[in-house]
Design goal:
Radius of gyration: 21 Å
Strand content: under 5%
Number of strands: 4
Largest sheet: 2 strands, antiparallel
Structural class: mainly alpha
Distance between the termini: 30 Å
Helix content: over 70%
């Protein structure tokens, strides 16, 4: 990763938040499967330990994001994820949203496309709901029976929705080595950026990082001054 033409996409703090959240989420899903699927429960055993791990990891899910708030880059990316503009709506409408023409995406997507923004919103909301319903299930005494029943229902079905979102997220990530590498080591090639996030590349052209100016102009030759 010493190539001079690589673009910085995610800082170490951002990647740490992503990785820690991913590990906690996968542990929660894995322990939930062992607790709710009879065959897995019999195979693994140690139900009490699995439940303890599940509960502690569930309550820890918001911690990486709260810690990430100390990072300016993380806060800026959260603001990006919260903004939904005309290009995002166009990206959702178009069947050829991932098409490339002349080395650039036909829709000049920003740092995050609309699908990534929707996924981030869903995951953040799901974590809060799972945290609330999990608290009711873990400490049932103060709550009436109706609340406990409703919390269990919502928690169980939302777990299936989260599982589907995680599987879809992994599927797209594994099909795109550039995106996977960007989240793993924090840098992407300018060609990948032009194809998948041309709008973000244009932002770098307008206010380039001195360390990235060379690679940005390489990916956007028309942006170079005469």
């Amino acid at each position: 990763m010493s190539r001079p033409d690589m673009l910085a996409r995610f800082t170490g703090a951002e990647r740490a938040v992503h990785h820690a959240t991913a590990v906690l989420m996968l542990v929660c899903l894995g322990t939930a499967a062992c607790l709710y699927v009879p065959d897995l429960a019999t195979l693994v055993g140690r139900r009490s330990l699995l439940r303890t791990v599940h509960v502690w990891c569930g309550f820890a899910l918001p911690v990486p994001m709260l810690a990430g708030w100390l990072s300016r880059a993380f806060r800026e990316d959260v603001r990006r994820l919260n903004r939904f503009g005309p290009r995002d709506r166009e990206w959702l409408r178009r069947a050829d949203r991932r098409a490339v023409a002349g080395g650039r995406g036909v829709v000049p997507v920003g740092k995050f496309n609309a699908g990534q923004k929707l996924n981030a919103a869903f995951v953040a909301g799901a974590i809060l709901v799972m945290l609330g319903t999990g608290a009711v299930m873990s400490f049932p005494d103060p709550w009436p029976v109706g609340w406990r029943t409703g919390a269990t229902f919502v928690h169980d079905w939302l777990t299936l929705a989260v599982l589907a979102a995680v599987v879809g997220h992994l599927w797209y990530a594994l099909r795109d080595p550039g995106a996977l590498g960007g989240m793993w080591h924090g840098r992407v090639g300018p060609e990948w950026a032009a194809r998948h996030h041309a709008g973000w590349l244009d932002e770098l052209v307008k206010a380039p990082d001195p360390r990235q100016e060379r690679s940005v102009k390489t990916a956007n030759p028309d942006s170079a001054e005469p």
